[in-house]
Amino acid sequence: MGNRVMLVERDRLMLEKLTQVVQGTNGFELVARYQSISDALGQGTIFNPNLILLDIEEQNSVALIADFLKVYPKAAILCMGEKWKAESASHIVQAGARGYIIKPFTGLELQEAVDTFVKLGTEAGCETLVFFSPKGKSGKTTLIANLATALARKTHEQVGIIDADLQFGDMSVFFNLAPKTTIVEAARDAKFLSPVTLHPYFMPVMQNVSVLCGTATPNLIDKVSIRRFENIISMSRSLFRYLLIDVPPGFNPTSIAAAEQSNTTFLVSMINDAYEIDHMKRALEIFKDWEDYEERVKAIFTRVEPCNSQSQRELARQLGYPVTAIIPNEYGIVSDAADNGKMATDIRPDSPLAQSVDRLADEITGRGHRIRWSAS
Question: What keywords would UniProt list here (predicted)?
Answer without folding.
Answer: Phosphoprotein
